[in-house]
Amino acid sequence: MKKLLVLTGGGDCPGLNAVIRAIVKSATLDGGWEVYGSKEAFNGVISDPVDIVRLSSNEVGGIHVKGGTIIKTTNKGNPLAYPVKNDHGEIEMKDISGTLVEKIKKLNFDAVINIGGDGSQKISQKLFEKGLNIVGVPKTIDNDLSATDLTFGFTTAVQIASDAFDKLVTTASSHHRVMILEVMGRDAGWIALHTAISGGAEICLIPEIPFDLNEVLTKINQRYDQGKGFVNIVIAEGARAINQEQIGKIDQYSEHIKLGGVGNTLRKQLEDMGCEPEIRVAILGHIQRGGTPMAFDRILATAMGKASFDLVKNQQFGQMVCLKNNTISSASLKEATEDYNFVNLDHYLIKTARAIGISFGD
Ligand code: F6P
User: Fold this and answer.
1) Which one of 230, 300, 325, 338 has the minimum C-beta count within 10 Å?
2) How many CB atoms lie within 10 A of CB 56?
3) Given this model, what pLDDT does residue 183 score?
């Protein structure tokens, strides 16, 4: 029997379990394969003793409808910059990737499937360069991987954000208020853009377009002058005003700052500028990452899981599964992690939004 190791890395995302199930089912039905899951990304392999579980068809029955990941995940397990305590009790980042590859080989794994986002697939590429038989499955609610037209989880996140937005519209209208909905989106504003169009926002603020606070205030005032009586704003957590930094906290275990709070900063700045209507803020946060994946995401995740097993079976290592032009295919991990899927300012949804009067604060 050949041994296949599966892991989920980075932030979780609706659809991860559907990928795991599809891999286990495809490999089991194909015959000749035993599938294992490393708990919390590569931490299950790195830890001593290892935390690796056997995944058979029984373990994965019915999990495609569940949020989260049955093999857990972490964004603190980068083997290229692994947090290790030094003799003074301080955290130091060490590259332990060589030892990791050796350990995976010693454990007799023939191949690895890494289900993860941009950061995880950069790790996959490095491990591939070090001789590991690895393939990637793209995962992120942010939809920020350029090699694939869509990532599973994104559609569910947009639906959750859109439902929240709809609820805020009615309360904004009742109170004649400005409501700000802060959604996820570190460097790419896809969730905010889709939510703004789906919900009918007046203002949409995304990381790709630094906003002018005066423009935002002007747009708010125009709405009230027109007698509309309320304003709904959707802002991505990674958005920032011109000449200002992203809002968040430093995380000693991560290379990224922990974003969050830009909605409240925007409220305060607008109030300081004399915005007359009352402003309230709702931060959606991790609600967007949890719960049942929508049917579309379950289907995409299942197709990607199956395709990743095909790559393993055909020994096409160093590849990442992707969805391009309505077909499941693959791209090299190198190519897949070179460019980031920013919202292109010529994108048809940016043009659509502008055409129907949504302001980007520019
Ligand atoms: O990458 C997906 C994402 O949802 C980002 O939008 C967000 O900044 C990040 O994960 C938050 O991750 P966590 O709070 O789990 O560290």
Assistant:
1) 325
2) 12
3) 98
Catalytically annotated residue among 118, 142, 144, 187 = 142
Q: Could you report the per-residue pLDDT of 146-188, keeping only the tens digit for each?
A: 999 999 999 999 999 999 999 999 999 999 999 999 999 999 9
Query: 203 by DSSP, 3-state: which?
Result: strand
Contact 151, 139 (CB under 8 A): yes
DSSP single-letter state for residue 38: E
Q: Confirm whether 142 is a catalytic residue.
A: yes
Domain regions of the chain by residue span: 2-152+293-336, 155-286
Please check whether the two domains, 2-152+293-336 and 155-286, share a CATH topology: yes
- The per-residue pLDDT for range 199-253, each reduced to its tens digit, is 999 999 999 999 999 999 999 999 999 999 999 999 999 999 999 999 999 887 7
In three-state secondary structure terms, 174 is helix
**Residue 83 predicted with pLDDT over 90:** no
Give the model's confidence band at 9: pLDDT under 50 very low, under 70 low, under 90 confident, else very high.
very high
The CB of 184 under 6 Å from ligand 1? The reply is yes
**Looking at ligand 1, which residue's alpha carbon is closest to its atom 8?**
186
Contact 339, 145 (CB under 8 A): no
Does domain 155-286 fall under CATH 3.40.50.970? My reply is no
Ligand 1 and 186: CB distance under 6 A = yes
Write the residue with the smallest CA distance to atom 15 of ligand 1.
11
60 CA → ligand 1 middle, Å: 26
Spacing, Cα 140 to ligand 1 middle (Å): 9
Farthest CA pair distance, the chain: 72
Q: CATH number of the domain at 2-152+293-336, please?
A: 3.40.50.450
* Atom of ligand 1 lying closest to residue 185 CA: 6
Q: How much distance in Å is there from the Cα of 11 to the middle of ligand 1?
A: 6
Distance 225 CA to ligand 1 centre (A): 38
pTM across the whole model: 0.96
Cβ–ligand 1 distance for 144 under 6 Å, the answer: no
